[in-house]
Amino acid sequence: MLCLLPNPREITYQPGVCARTGVNARIDLSTARSQGYRLTISTEGISIIGHDADGLRHGTQTLFQIRAQCPGPLPCLTIADWPDFPVRGVMLDISRDKVPTMETLFALVDRVINARFREGFGFKEAPIRCQG
Hints:
2 domains, two-stranded parallel sheet
């Protein structure tokens, strides 16, 4: 079972594994919706069909996540995904929790980039100074 971020809308596993490394990628406007893609990993190879350039990028990022979790042959599967909104993002609110280290922030940025998000936001409230 793969752990993909964010979770794709549809994922269907098939029997077998794919030992091929080449990827066939193309744009097809009839695929999914804007920024959508269909990633197919089969015994014949790997294909990514994106609705547009963003869809191809999201499909490629999903394939990177799968390869990171499967160092050997890849499982045969089909993934279809598209965003609900034109902008996928994540927000880090450090004003209500401990302040992260730079190492943690860099790791978070790496995860956000590899997880098909387009934007990241940070939020920090100004400290309140009291006379005392």
